[in-house]
Amino acid sequence: xxxxxxxxxxxxxxxxxxxxxxxxxxxxxxxxxxxxxxxxxxxxxxxxxxxxxxxxxxxxxxxxxxxxxxxxxxxxxxxxxxxxxxxxxxxxxxxxxxxxxxxxxxxxxxxxxxxxxxxxxxxxxxxxxxxxxxxxxxxxxxxxxxxxxxxxxxxxxxxxxxxxxxxxxxxxxxxxxxxxxxxxxxxxxxxxxxxxxxxxxxxxxxxxxxxxxxxxxxxxxxxxxxxxxxxxxxxxxxxxxxxxxxxxxxxxxxxxxxxxxxxxxxxxxxxxxxxxxxxxxxxxxxxxxxxxxxxxxxxxxxxxxxxxxxxxxxxxxxxxxxxxxxxxxxxxxxxxxxxxxxxxxxxxxxxxxxxxxxxxxxxxxxxxxxxxxxxxxxxxxxxxxxxxxxxxxxxxxxxxxxxxxxxxxxxxxxxxxxxxxxxxxxxxxxxxxxxxxxxxxxxxxxxxxxxxxxxxxxxxxxxxxxxxxxxxxx
Length: 474
Description:
Strand 13 (262-265), helix 11 (269-277) and strand 14 (281-285) form a beta-alpha-beta unit. The two termini are 31 Å apart.
């Protein structure tokens, strides 16, 4: 079992929401997860994952984010400069405190989205770190703040050990980090029964409208004359008998997105990812003054996946609804996948030469599942496949390591125990789920034993058989 600590920005809820499923995948694999984030964001994560005992959530203000002009989408440069400068001056004490915490807790990996200063602490303690994001604060702040501030932020992100970069990443992030793990998106899963219930509540077509929790727009927009049901999150003022505001504490806004016919949203990554995965007709509110939003919209529009919506003293709802109704997004050409399982597997790989990985499967309990063994599932090129069958219970197989070969072991039927030894540490895995694999790096000693009757152990290898590749006992 690995101990992984997440440091999540408490600017809005997007960072918490997009890491939620990754955290759950790690918990399902039996690992301990600690999450540090703001109080409201921590409560959201804790409520969403309350059934997991191996989860600990610690409330801690970690980030500044953006400071907006009152009642506007626009950044307030003067207030932002003051707040960020004060924030940087707090880094020394924050880092000192966190170094003490990390030395005592001794985690295997630090995952960060996108709190800057924590990387100085991880480097001082010698704990591996991973940045996971589609942007950094550098490309947003450099259009408003001093070179000294940008230099301070760069000094943080330069300490990163590993990077997982989402699709729709900014051009700055694509250029700044040279060695990255590329993934599609990550978002909360849809609950089809809830989606069905939401649709059945309303006779009119549904329009989901969201501007994010960090915004509070002043303009009032009357929509009661439109033949739509509007479902709205806080931050924008829509008035009419056909408007339903979702409460702050609601945990499944993704299901309302899936139930909607049309989506109008700020370019926040979480809502965009959920709208894209649900393959909705989506209008994205322009915000040229924020680099992340600007580049997200540009990429979506260029791919034919969304329309840009202008916000000038409110939304021209009539025009926007008409354009969206006639819009046909290019999901057949460009599509996204929910890569939470892939990301969880990447994180475990970063802190261990052997780990359990969840294999993607397709189907349902009533009809059974298909588990493809393809390049996006297996983290190497497959060159050899074999399986062990009819192994007596008292027999131990393996008793070797490889110099070059990587492997994934899958128990297709029954149960098998595998003892892995590496760097004088031993771990025993019980394999009993055909939708899980045990990944083994080269030089990991492995012994498979305690085969149940009828057990079948499949081995997928990165190399062809070569006796010279085996490391055996003398």
